[in-house]
Amino acid sequence: MADDLRFPDGFFWGTATSSHQVEGNNKNNQWWAWEQAGGNIKDGTVSGVACDHYNRFAEDFRMSREWGHNAHRFSIEWSRIEPEEGHWDEKEVEHYRRVLESLHESGLVPFVTLHHFTNPVWFEEMGGWTNERAPELLGRFAGYMAEQLGDAVPYWLTINEPPVLPAASYIAGVHPPAKRDFGLAMQAARHILMSLGTMHNAIREKAPHDPKIGPVINMTYAVPASDSEEDKAAARLMDQYWNAYWLDGIRDGVIGAPAGDGEEVPGLKGAWDIVGLNFYSRSVLAAGRGVMGLRQVAPSPDAETSTMGWEVYPEGFYQSMMRLKGYDVPVYITENGIGTDDDEQRISYLVRHFNQVHRAITDGVDVRSYLHWCQQDNFEWAEGFRQKFGLFATEEGTLNRIPKGSAHFFKDVAENNRVPGELVEKYVR
Ligand code: BGC
Questions:
Q1: Which of these, 114, 296, 313, 376, is most buried using a 10 Å CB contact count?
Q2: How would DSSP label each residue in 83-106?
Q3: How many domains in the chain?
Q4: 389: CA distance to ligand 1 center in Å?
């Protein structure tokens, strides 16, 4: 029989969400407009009222607490706070103050993301991340939030998944503005990396306490499809763009390949106290045509996949955490989870991924949280509501939160700060 997997004292267990996916009625951002245009969301849905979390946040937080969690990650919707350039909506600031108070009252430690995919329409209209004013504008927003709410925020997460922004919006063209223009993608990648510095420094300057601040990087574990030199080179390129460009960029304070040639960015070097890690899957690369000569190979038919089509590959999670060890900043798992209609698969996925977190901690990685994506089923961007990542289902019509078996399983793990040996035996061995 396998041993229980025990986690360090003070480990954070909870879930993560993002404003546009759960709040509802975020009408001032580029996603809302793009959804209304029609034809852009695979299952034909729109975010609409989403999970109505904007009104139900207090119940959601009580629920998390009752279900054993001690932390929660959410994002502040920039387009609510700054609906027009330079105009701050104080009512919305008050809303997020109540959100933070409610988290504290419920006994959940807040992790606050400042940018999670959505841009105010005015920012999008000026070119969004491709505009060279982006680092200044994002820094200003971050500083304002730190000044307004900083007394209640111990952990700030600046930008969610920097690599996804240029890739999805300007390479694959599956997020608005849905372009396919490598030059624009690289412009965006430069400005996003620079913003990680301006936002960090603005929070540091304006926050009343001494919060921990960092980016949320969704690493992929990039491996070659074969032993050929060409495939290995493709995997290295993927790794450079998706992982190293951001991680080395912050560590060294430079814009490296593919968006720059190593030029220094004042204020960027070491602009992280912590790093958030989102991990979902691995990427298998082969040489071939495609942007930058990258060709991603689909999982083999016998591989376990999610309803997103992503391969389940827990070993890559471990490898990503081990990689982060080299950067010497504490690691917070800010997202991990699976889109599936089979909740038994979710439990199995979770046990196997918890096992890798435990293994990484045993091997010396300073991992301090596991925040599951997501609390409840929600608006999964271009996929719509069809994809189910939640520990709780969101009932159609009533929007009631219905616990799944995985919510029960998660409660047991979180409350006891351990994964029972019998489940390790069942799902890992
Ligand atoms: C994003 C979430 C998204 C999740 C599942 C992450 O890339 O941060 O917003 O819902 O993955 O696709």
A1: 376
A2: SBTTB--HHHHHHHHHHHHHHHHH
A3: 1
A4: 9
Does residue 213 contact residue 200 with C-beta atoms inside 8 Å?
A: yes
**pLDDT tens-place string over residues 191-249:** 999 999 999 999 999 999 999 999 999 999 999 999 999 999 999 999 999 999 999 99
Q: Are 276 and 332 within 8 A, CB to CB?
A: yes
Tell me how far the alpha carbon of residue 208 lies from the centroid of ligand 1, in angstroms: 31
pLDDT averaged over every residue in the chain: 97
What is the number of the ligand 1 atom nearest to the C-alpha of 378?
A: 10
* Cβ contact 118:382 at 8 Å: no
Cα distances (angstroms) measured from residue 2 to each of 220, 290, 348, 350: 29, 45, 15, 16
List the beta bridge partners of residue 283.
Answer: 222
3-state class of 109 per DSSP? Answer: strand
Reply yes or no on whether 161 is catalytic: yes
7: left (phi over 0), alpha (psi -120 to 50) or beta: beta
How far apart are alpha carbons 383 and 394 in whole angstroms?
Answer: 16
CATH number at residue 369: 3.20.20.80
Q: Looking at ligand 1, which atom is closest to the CA of residue 308?
A: 12
What are the CA-CA distances from residue 45 to residues 23, 56, 168, 379 (Å)? 15, 21, 19, 9
What tens digit of pLDDT does each residue of 368-409 get? 999 999 999 999 999 999 999 999 999 999 999 999 999 999
Report the pocket of ligand 1 as residue ranges, CB < 6 Å.
18, 21, 160-161, 164, 218, 278, 335, 373, 380, 389
Comparing C-alpha atoms, which of 60, 142, 73 is closest to residue 112?
73
Taking the CA of residue 339 as reference, the ligand 1 atom at the shortest distance is: 5
Query: Is residue 59 among the annotated active site residues?
Result: no
Segments forming the whole domain that contains residue 259: 5-427
Q: How far is the CA of 339 from the centre of ligand 1 (A)?
A: 10
| Pocket residue to mutate for ligand 1, from 373, 379, 385, most atoms within 8 A of Cβ | 373
Taking the CA of residue 117 as reference, the ligand 1 atom at the shortest distance is: 9
Q: Report how far apart the first and last C-alpha atoms of the chain are (Å, whole number).
A: 10
Residue type, 127: G
pLDDT greater than 90 at residue 66: yes
Catalytic residue among 23, 77, 335, 380: 335
Dist. CA 102–CA 377, nearest whole Å: 21
